[in-house]
Amino acid sequence: MKKLIFSLLFLVGFAPLHAQLSLDIESGLAFQGYNEVRIPNESSATKFDLNKDFDLQGPVIPLRIRVGYTFAERNHISLLYAPLGIDYQGPAPFDIYYQGTLFARGEEIDGYYKFNSYRITYRRSLITSERWRLGLGFTAKIRDARIKLGTDGVSAKKDDLGFVPLLNIYTAYKFENWRIFLKGDGLAGGPGRAFDFFLGGRIPLTKNLAMKAGYRILEGGADVEEVYNFTVIHFVDIGVIWQL
Question: Which of 104, 152, 186, 220 would give a disulfide with 194, using CB separation of 3.0 to 4.6 Å?
């Protein structure tokens, strides 16, 4: 027991000497793929696609802010704030029954899709060679989602606030003065799935500042009693990473 206590105290005291703070800010352009919806998930409701059946109101400019903390060289903790909102507009191509409300064919519809994400991630580096890095971990995600349809006289919406456990992966290969990497969260099983992965490159600008650019895909959804919704969104992103 004494050895365990001593070890924990040693780690707590030792970690700050090798700790590193980071701030990762990312933006760019988002492009909607499918966004299929049926709420409630039963025969009385209409299945429709927000992106294919209506016109996306753009451009959609995402924002992601991640604060990271690395300690004892191989351990990484991060907090992510990633809000996302997409607006749609256009006449209903057919009668849509949504949340017990009828939106008749031809009615001008204003649609809104929100998918805000709040995450805390722990990852441990398993490989840290001169060229290669590989890390695995887990992410606790809180999703704050909303799907809303409305006209001048009536509106209906579905909010969904929930917890999603995900696996986290990071792998990178270093060239002379830049690095290519793949990182993200994902898990599939049961009635749903969730994937959020970024593939890109990172190049240093100064000792503490680097720039990154690449492609991100956000895909997933759920097929449960109350909700059927599956969506995919493609991102072309650019960002900066500051490390201390």
Answer: 220
